[in-house]
Amino acid sequence: MTRESTDYLRRLKAALTGDPATPLAFLCNFEVETQWARHHVGLPAPAAAPTAVVQRMEELGILLAGPDDLIVVKNAPDEGYLRYLAEDLGVGLPAVLVPERTSEDRPTAEDLLNSPLALDRLSRLGRLGTRLIPMGTSESEEKLAVSAQVPLAVPDAATFERVNSKIYSRRVTEELGLPAVPGWCCETLGELRQALAEAAAVPGSVVVKDAYGVSGKGLVVLDTPAKADRLLRLVERRAARTGDDRLALVVERWIDKRADLNYQITVDRRGGVRLDFVKQALTERGVHQGHLMPADLNAGQHALLRHAAAEVGGRLAADGFFGVAGIDAIVGADERVHPVLEINARFNMSTYQGGITELFHRPGDVALARHYPVRPAGPIGFDDLRRALGTLLSPAPGGRVIVTCFGTVNAGATNTGAVNTGAADAGGDGPRHQGRLYTLLTAPDHDRLAALDGAVRAALAGVIQPREDS
Questions:
Q1: Which of 86, 204, 301, 370 qualifies as a cystine partner to 297, CB 3.0-4.6 A?
Q2: CATH 3.40.50.920 fits domain 182-253
């Protein structure tokens, strides 16, 4: 039986448009931070181009969108994967729009602007009431909304850029009187020089972050005076060369932590704030790995997060923002909660998990949303993966695995239109591309969840060779 839209999606539509039945065109532009960052000076390092994996993550939006919606993707989803979602999971799938002219080196919104047939289809939907909902708005999505005459369901690019700066996050946290990680905002070379001098007066490491860095990019830990001096010299030389001493950085003291947290709020057009969920975030070297649900928190810690959610949401509304915001927080080794590490006022990884979690995470169970890094010898089809995972994809007393994004498995592979059913026999010969398999695991308790995680690793090892560092 195919399900209709989830309550999670209906609430989102009501918050953004006033009508829970509004059709939406989803554009999951995971590279949007790089667009905002172009107007700001960060750490002296080359800008990283979106990887093939990041581009294929657009497919995550299929499980957020509903049967009355549309999702725009650069690469057509695997037909076997779509059958699995519709027939095995009973998910009501959105329509899929693939621009006829795509390029790996430009955002999908720009692909649409260069694809007359796809742009015309989007325009026709706009005339019928569809609204455009990107992960976050940049200048590209603004141009698309105007060209296709599809109104944005979220704010403009200037608003998104303003509220997504880590400098904005620090200042809001301090102004609201929330417990903040000790640190400094640096918008000039002089401010960075002063911040590093003050930091050096107290033993301990500091971390320097680009105002628009994401997933471990644009971040450096300074754990010795020599590293701090080296960074400062690099910034000074760049400023001397360019004649521009502007910066967009934050410097924060390193906090020993027990857990990373992520909680999501939705701010509606009238300024109302809803706390959607709190999850324990799993990270490795600053890079997001997944989420554990529910988070291991006591009542007082939950209460502080609810208070922070209301305060931050109110401030975002006052500053012209409405939509989804994910807020990163940490629980220190001393159990003290720092409720606002940064505000990501856009769709987050956990946003895309909302609908599928509603459908399959039963009260009292535990769940793990995570990806498995994989290195297939060549492109494989979803049906190959399905055979490898076997009964793990079916409901069982020990838990269940749900595949939430398959396209990223083949990201970076050559000849992606072909299916290599002999990947298991490759024996490690030849080059292997690095992909990811995104999943949601559910189980009655943590022990069975860990066992299920191990079973997935073992099953994948037999067909698509997980990387050694997975």
A1: 301
A2: no
